[in-house]
Amino acid sequence: MLLKKPLAVNDVATFKLANGEEIVAQINEITDSGYDVRKPVSLVPGPQGGMGFAPWIMTADADSFTLNKEQVLACATTQSEIAKMYTEAVTDIQLA
Questions:
Q1: Is 88 helix (H, G, I), strand (E, B) or coil?
Q2: What is the distance, to the nearest Å, from the Cα of residue 72 to the centroid of all Cα atoms in its chain?
Q3: CA dist 53 to 34, 50, 83, Å?
Q4: What letter would DSSP give residue 3?
Q5: CA-CA distance, 79 to 92, in Å (whole number)?
Q6: Three-class SS state of 27
């Protein structure tokens, strides 16, 4: 049986929220009450049929938010290919 490592600071994680939304974000901090995340995005249908990213909160003048643990139904490390696309989308870094 493989052991899974728990989520940690700087991980790119996927969160399923109580309202049904699924978001991807980088973890800044994990506290007893929630997750402080950076640049959360929602998955949206892309123009050519694939999936794309859209800012989770479009009008906020911030890029860090706190997700209350009571509103998080599930969380996990994001699939590596999606995490790579997320990193490239929210930064100017192009990963090989």
A1: helix
A2: 12
A3: 23, 10, 11
A4: P
A5: 20
A6: strand
